[in-house]
Each structure stands twice: as structure tokens, then as C-alpha cells.
Amino acid sequence: EVQLVESGGGLVQPGRSLRLSCTASGFTFGDYAVSWVRQAPGKGLEWVSFIRSKRYTGTTDYAASVQGRFSVSRDDSKSIAYLQMNSLKTEDTAVYYCTRARRVTSGGISYYFDFWGQGTLVTVSS
Amino acid sequence: EVVMTQSPATLSVSPGERATLSCRASQSVSTNLAWYQQKPGQAPRLLIYGASTRATDIPARFSGSGSGTEFTLTISSLQSEDFALYYCQQYNNWPPWTFGQGTRVDIK
Predict the structure, then answer these.
(1) DSSP of B27-79
(2) Strands B4-7 and B98-99
(3) Could you report the per-residue pLDDT of A73-90, keeping only the tens digit for each?
(4) Which long-range contacts (C-beta less than 8 Å, at least 24 apart) are formed by B52-59?
(5) Which pLDDT score, from 0 to 100, does residue B100 have?
(6) Cβ-contact B20, B74 below 8 angstroms
(7) Which residues of B fall within a CB distance of 8 Å from A45?
(8) Is A50 close to B34, i.e. CB distance below 8 A?
(9) Region label for A76, one of left (φ > 0), alpha (ψ between -120 and 50) or beta (otherwise)
(10) B32-62 pLDDT, tens per residue?
């Protein structure tokens, strides 16, 4: 059974840092890309960051709203993905979901998010 | 950035009836379109990918259609467990991946 478990959320002051973890099981973690998606309280879904599998370069992408502040990485030996969040703002308050991203190659390369973790709440407040 | 627009915002349906949800993209996304269901306090769950392919273990009453800029999610006969929020998402022009604002299906 595919499982993704996020951890590391909590209450943090504006300007501080936090690192989220996503621990995967039930599949070969290194074969898949991982994406982070967040949901502010009572709001919709917002894509945050993406990291390819090492087979496909392991490179990363970020939403404009977090570019330069957030950094995503992975440790395939531990089946864990990380989201390092620096210079946090109140508008970063959200539930952060880790997702497995499945690669498709019809008409070009693309990825959709086939499994989601239960999420971890990050609250940025003084 | 591709803007995804869902309609209606809320759909009131009686159990056993059909529900039709719409999603429009600001530019063509081919068939690289997914639908997700989210229940209160839960993570989103993938229902449909490739605009019309049901994900694993998704009941046959869920169907997706469309291509280009116009997409539809149909729930043929609503069950009690289907009352939830539904999001469409494009994965054709990325990054960023973009979601619609959601359609809430509630009990009439």
C-alpha cells in the first residue's frame, strides 16, 4: 500500500524557518518525482514545489510565491523528501501535502499527483 | 500560467441523481487534466487522470470527459459518500501546476 506521511509542521514566527519531511512507503521511492501542494485554511489547492527523480535529473521547480525561500530535496536511501521553508510569512500558513508525482509521456512529458499524504499544518504567526 | 475555472461553485443534488461538474482552462491543456475529491479534514484523492481515465479503485459512477479547454466530471448516481469538494487540475503546461477553485457537491 502506497503511503506518504508528512511531519514537521507547527507554529512558527514570521521570518523563521521550518523543515517538513515526507516519509514514503509501499513503493520504490527513488523511481518517482515528488511534489508539495498546500491549502490555506478554507481555501483551495496551491502547488508549491516539485523534485524529479534522480533518473530524470533530480532537478526542482518552485511556485513564484515561494521561489528563493523554499527548497525541496530528497534522500532516496531513506525514502524521504524534505521541504525547507525559510523566511516564512503569515501567508504561508496552510496544510502542506506531499504527493507522489507520476510521469506520463503522451504528447510530451508531464506529471500528475496520484497519491497524497494526510498533510501537516504550518501556522506562521507572532 | 494556465487558469482553471470550475463551475458551479456549489451544486446541490439529491442522492441517486446525476451531478455534472465543469472545468475550463484558459488555454488548451490537451487531455492532461485530473480531477480530485476532497472530504472535510482529509487529503485530496485522485479520481480521474488523462481527462477520462479512472484512478485505481474509483467506482464506475465517476466519469470524465473533454479535451483542450472544456472538461466535465459526471457522477452518474450520487451516493452519500460522494458529497464533497471536487477540484480539477491541469498538468500540461507546467510549472506551475494549477487547480480550479473547486466545486462543492452538497445534499439537496
Answers:
(1) S--TT-EEEEEE-TTS--EEEEETTTEEPTT--TTEEEEEETTEEEEEESS--
(2) unpaired
(3) 999 999 999 999 999 999
(4) B55/A114
(5) 98
(6) yes
(7) 36, 44, 87, 89, 99, 102
(8) no
(9) alpha
(10) 999 999 999 999 999 999 999 999 999 999 9
